[in-house]
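Tutorial, part two.
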Amino acid sequence: MPFIQITMMEGRTVEQKHALIKGLTDATAEALGGDPERIRVAIYEVSTDDWGIGGVPVSVLRPNG
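Running the prediction step on this input gives:
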């Protein structure tokens, strides 16, 4: 059973997250020839204070979003 973990910065809508889960499930089932009912997807959201690029938090790099 494939288990997909996605870590991304917070800020997406519920609809976007649902679409991501569906798209990843469909793509995985197609690529592996598996049953979509056996594919699991987990989304972990991280705040911009907890995500760094080049040693700098994203909240500092992009203070207005």
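The mean pLDDT is 95. In part three we will examine how such features are distributed along the chain.
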